[in-house]
Amino acid sequence: MDHRMRVSPAQIYLLLISSSVYGFIPGADGPVSTLEGLEGGSTTLLCDSTSDTPNDELMLLVWYKNNAPIYSYDARVGTEWSSSFNSSGRLKADLTRQPTAITISYLRDDDQALYHCRVDFLLSPTKNIGVNLSVTVLPSVPFFLDELGNKVEKKIGPYHDGDTLVLSCLVIGGRPPPRITWYSGEVLVDASDGNSDIPGVRENELYLPLSRENTAPLSCRATNTQLTGPISAALQIELFLPAYNVSIHWVQGTIEDILQAGKPAIVQCAAYGSYPPPELSWWLDHRHLTQHSNQSWVNSTRTAISFLELTPSVADNGATLACVATNTVMAAGRDSKADVIILNVTYSPIVEVAKVGDGRLNEVVELDPMHLECEVRANPPVEKFTWYFNDMEIKPDGIWGYNTSSKDLFVEEASRKHAGQYSCSARNSVGETMAEHISIIVFYPPECAEHGITLVKETLNCNVRALPTPDTYFWHVQPFGMDVQHLTTGSAILPLSQVTGPLANTLHASCEAGNGVASQDRPCRRNFSLEQLRPPTPQQCDLAFEYQEFQMRCIPVENATYYEVSVWRMSTSNASLLLERRGSMGYGTSQPLAQGGGSPWLVRGPLGRLKAGDEAGASACNRYGCSRALLLRPTENLLEIASPPWWHFLLEKDVGISVGAVVLVAVFLISTTLVVRLARRSRSKPVPVIQVLQLDDVARDYLDTIGEHKVHASCSIRSCSSGYSDGSGESAPAVDRRRKPRPTWDTWDPPPPDVTLTLHRESEV
Predict the structure, then answer these.
(1) How far apart (Å, rounded) are the C-alpha atoms in residues 60 and 47?
(2) Which DSSP letter does residue 576 get?
(3) What's the CATH fold of domain 534-642?
(4) Going by fewer Cβ within 10 Å, which terminus of the chain is more open, N or C?
(5) Is 408 helix (H, G, I), strand (E, B) or coil?
């Protein structure tokens, strides 16, 4: 069976406890190797977890320290366990390499122990491997004591030629005990190290006759392992006697050696052991101070004394004050000794507000974190911070968070409410100071403003709110029935002249603005009907008959680029007008033309032939479509003038050919008939037949009133009316089909005479 029982961590720990009952016996249970590590360093323990049996599987791997389990890996369930030994995370296991390894970091003194790993397999017997780890503890850095027991640093002397240098090198601690050697330059001069009277301290005392040949730097080296190089310290030997000790202490104007900015204080410098007397000089951060009292000398103690009156400033806090004793009889560079102290100057806080993070000082992007820091210089440290927004103290709440009393003001997601002036104040035991204001501007990406996109005349405007102002606008424009057009502008306007294709119906437009902060979340969208951009309906038009056809003539209107003319004809049902034909009427200017040359400039459109009941329409057009048509009906005078003579139709080519053919056929038939009749008459003469038609009273009455019926019939058709309809679109307005009153000869007026003999027109507007 391939199914394995699942093991819980508790079972693993119980197994480890039970397995640690017996002790690991080096040499009997498995091989043991030695390993050395440095305190504070790291070391890696290896364990061969391969099996000697083919097709075997690793079941359990356990590491022990002095027979106490510290780590295990159960390969059956893939779980790891470590004891309290790994509470600080110093133990790391690497099961991917072979042999498997555990690394112990930050080695301590108590990590020195016998470690061994136990490996359990499915088929092979358990394997044990031991590692004896020794932890080497490095000694301290060597330090020097002269023959008087004074600690010596960097240099010693001065000495005269022939003097014997007596110097001790001491090292504290170390396991195993270190070995101490003396070197002059790179030459070994003494290796007789030994123990000191102080427990845990090793010492090597050097007796060195001084000469010009051994003026190289003197170094003391301590070593107790091959894992790292020796630890050394060096001294420079001076062959003269400068002051061996220089000390500085405050005399007046301080409290426990603490200064206050702006208040004067007096400090004393004493130099000991120099001969001849040294010259004492004061230095403040490498700046020579000349205002001090006269120097005094006590020969019995070889002590030189100097006083300095100092008024510290804020900038002097942390500065170094040095007193240098220089022996003028000694060689330059080896003729002086100094004491240095660090000034502790107290002052009220110096505060400045700064923005932490990327970007400019006063700019924050919406939804980004805003981190302001109250940069402060203060001594003693600040006791309390207070933040202000627009001169109002910031209290802990939802918009600012609840940590508003520290030196940092942090907002996880900045919003437009956070734009304004910020300041902070800091207070210590000396005083309280408020920083200058800084203005924070919150940038935010574009978003649609009210109405989004608006259409002003022939320009689309993209109305967005954004900071900073957008510099790029992406337009997506789709005229009705066409593909989407993608345009980019550097301003918020898009002239419709940049949109290709017809714009006679609706227009779907969307815009997105970009200002370098972020892309616009939702584009502005809107559908526009472009009817408002169409030109107005022509209002000053007339019908005329010239050049043997009807003409529509109109005065140009505003915003029209071309004109259309149409003819409407009555339907067969005599119920509505139908579009008969449409044509171009010509082109016009965008503004109406004024009078010129005694008559207005006109646009013309040919209509061809019109019948009674027809109506002619004129529409002004541009790229956004055409206006409603102005419909005009020809008067009876125009129709009469335009009507051709009865024989006019014979002049037409097709009609003439047809009539000629009919005449020829008729002549042929008549001649044939006459020939036949003449042939028959010659044979026999027919008897004449007389037929009498009798009419009843009803028929006779109809024949007597047939004239009145003709008058009624002629007044029922549309040509009897010379009225005008101003319908629009593709169908004319409904026509009143009610019977008009029968005209009488007493009230009928004859039509007006023609305007001229060459131009026949009637206007109805």
Answers:
(1) 12
(2) S
(3) Immunoglobulin-like (2.60.40)
(4) N
(5) strand
Residue 572 has a pLDDT of: 76
Q: What would the two tokens of residue 509 be? A: 């437009």
Strand order in the sheet with 194-195: 151-152, 143-146, 164-172, 201-209, 194-195
Q: What is the pLDDT of residue 239?
A: 67
Phi-psi region of 55 (alpha: psi -120 to 50; beta: other; left: phi over 0): left
Reported CATH class of domain 347-436: mainly beta
Q: Which CATH class is domain 143-237?
A: mainly beta
Cis peptide before 479 (omega within 30 of 0): no
pLDDT of residue 734: 39
- At residue 102, the pLDDT reads 92
User: Which residues make Cβ contacts (< 8 Å) with residue 622, sequence separation at least 6?
Assistant: 533, 534, 535, 559, 560, 561, 562
Pick among 2.60.40.10, 3.40.50.1170, 3.40.50.620, 2.60.120.260: CATH of 245-343: 2.60.40.10
Q: What is the pLDDT of residue 301?
A: 82
C-alpha span between 653 and 661 (Å, rounded)? 12
Spatial neighbors of 108 by CB under 8 A, at least 6 apart, are: 39, 135
Rounded Cα distance between 511 and 448, Å, is 9
The reported pLDDT for the residue numbered 518 is: 83
Q: What is the DSSP string of 451-487?
A: EEEEEETTEEEEEEEEESPP-EEEEEEEETTS--EEE
Going from the first residue of the chain to its last (765 residues), give the mean pLDDT of each consecutive group of 10, the final group possibly shorter: 42 47 70 89 91 89 92 90 83 89 90 92 91 90 88 81 82 88 85 77 84 77 87 81 85 89 92 84 88 80 89 91 86 78 92 85 86 91 92 84 85 89 92 91 90 89 91 91 90 89 87 88 89 88 86 88 88 79 71 43 83 88 88 86 68 68 85 83 47 40 44 31 34 37 34 32 38
Question: Where, residue-wise, is CATH 2.60.40.10 in the chain?
Answer: 9-136, 143-237, 245-343, 347-436, 443-532, 534-642
pTM as predicted = 0.44
Homologous superfamily in CATH for domain 9-136:
Immunoglobulins (2.60.40.10)
* CATH architecture, range 443-532: Sandwich (2.60)
For residue 353, give both structure tokens.
Answer: 């507000």
User: How many Cβ atoms sit within 10 Å of the Cβ of residue 596?
Assistant: 8
User: Residue 72 contacts by C-beta under 8 Å, 6 or more apart in sequence?
Assistant: 12, 16, 60, 61, 62, 63, 80, 81, 82
- Cα dihedral across residues 668, 674, 679, 684: positive or negative: positive
How far is Cα 592 from Cα 584, in angstroms, rounded to an integer? 19
